[in-house]
């Protein structure tokens, strides 16, 4: 008799507990989804206007409001500033009816394209060797600071920032090439370092091929590494 009562109590409890635990709880949360128009990466010249192709956000079948922001990756611009050459992240955010956020992003690259005779400016794909290791990366940038003076977005080609996926704290920033007469192959450069690990980085050689649209750079890092960086310009 006791066994029957105990089993009946357990059955009643299971039913009642289930009702209490699921009371007033939403069964499904529909997170924002995004439909992006245009290309995921857009390259425009310095000083031109950026016309956003647009993004539409949905909660299920219902369109919801999108908030758009932009910021520079390398030069610290708080908005998308087309007068400053840089890689920009355009962020699209939307909130569903329950207050959950979703986002999508687009890369906008603001840059001039040099002819590699009069200017080294441009957007480049990097193919890098470090000892027996090799990797291909997108993108490395060369900016013109003044006549004959150029700055690299990453003096070791983005090996750690992009290739290892460590992020912008691991850029080797501040690499300058002074090359007023590109055809002569003569240049001077500064000593720079990795933003996180430090150490001294020095550019040993710069070879420009204006026909192939390539630049070969060798950078030595005082921690015992030599980076051979082959840059191919993106038109």
Topology:
Elements: H1 2-21, E1 33-36, E2 41-44, E3 55-59, E4 62-64, E5 67-72, E6 86-95, E7 101-110, E8 122-130, E9 133-146, E10 149-152, H2 159-163, E11 175-178, E12 188-189, E13 191-194, E14 198-209, E15 214-221, E16 225-234
Describe the structure.
The protein is built from two helices and 16 strands. It has 235 residues and is mostly beta strands. The protein has two domains: 78 residues, Immunoglobulin-like, CATH 2.60.40; 113 residues, Lipocalin. A nine-stranded antiparallel sheet has the order 12-11-10-9-8-16-15-14-13. It is elongated, with a radius of gyration of 27 Å.
Summarize the structure.
This protein has 235 residues and is mainly beta. The protein has helices spanning 2-21, 159-163; strands at 33-36, 41-44, 55-59, 62-64, 67-72, 86-95, 101-110, 122-130, 133-146, 149-152, 175-178, 188-189, 191-194, 198-209, 214-221, 225-234. It has two domains: 33-110, Immunoglobulins (Immunoglobulin-like), CATH 2.60.40.10; 122-234, Lipocalin (Beta Barrel).
Defining key terms:
single chain; 235 residues; mainly beta; Immunoglobulin-like; Lipocalin; 2 domains; nine-stranded antiparallel beta sheet; four-stranded mixed beta sheet; 16 strands; 11% helix; disordered N terminus
Give the count of helical stretches. Answer: 2
CATH class of the largest domain: Mainly Beta
Q: If strands are numbered along the chain, what order do they take across the biggest sheet?
A: 12-11-10-9-8-16-15-14-13
The stretches of 5 or more residues where confidence is low (pLDDT under 50) are 1-23
Q: Order of helices and strands, N to C?
A: HEEEEEEEEEEHEEEEEE
């Amino acid at each position: 008799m006791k066994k029957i009562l105990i089993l009946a109590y357990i059955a009643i409890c299971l039913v009642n507990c289930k009702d209490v635990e699921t009371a007033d709880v939403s069964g499904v949360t529909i997170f924002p989804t995004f439909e992006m128009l245009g290309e995921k990466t857009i390259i425009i010249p310095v000083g031109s206007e950026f016309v956003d192709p647009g993004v539409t956000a949905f909660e299920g079948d219902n369109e919801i409001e999108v908030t758009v922001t932009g910021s520079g990756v390398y030069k610290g611009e708080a908005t998308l500033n087309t007068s400053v050459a840089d890689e920009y992240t355009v962020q699209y955010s939307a909130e569903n009816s329950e207050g959950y956020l979703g986002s999508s992003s687009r890369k906008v690259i603001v840059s001039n394209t040099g002819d590699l005779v009069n200017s080294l400016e441009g957007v480049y794909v990097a193919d890098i060797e470090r000892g027996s290791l090799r990797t291909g990366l997108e993108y490395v940038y060369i900016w013109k600071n003044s006549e004959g003076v150029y700055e690299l977005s990453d003096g070791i080609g983005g090996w750690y920032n992009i290739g290892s996926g460590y992020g912008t704290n691991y850029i080797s920033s501040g690499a300058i090439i002074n090359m007023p007469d590109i055809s002569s192959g003569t240049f001077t450069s500064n000593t720079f370092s990795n933003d996180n690990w430090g150490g001294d980085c020095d550019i040993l050689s710069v070879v420009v091929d204006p026909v192939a649209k390539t630049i070969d750079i060798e950078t030595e890092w005082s921690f015992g590494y030599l980076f051979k960086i082959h840059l191919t310009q993106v038109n």
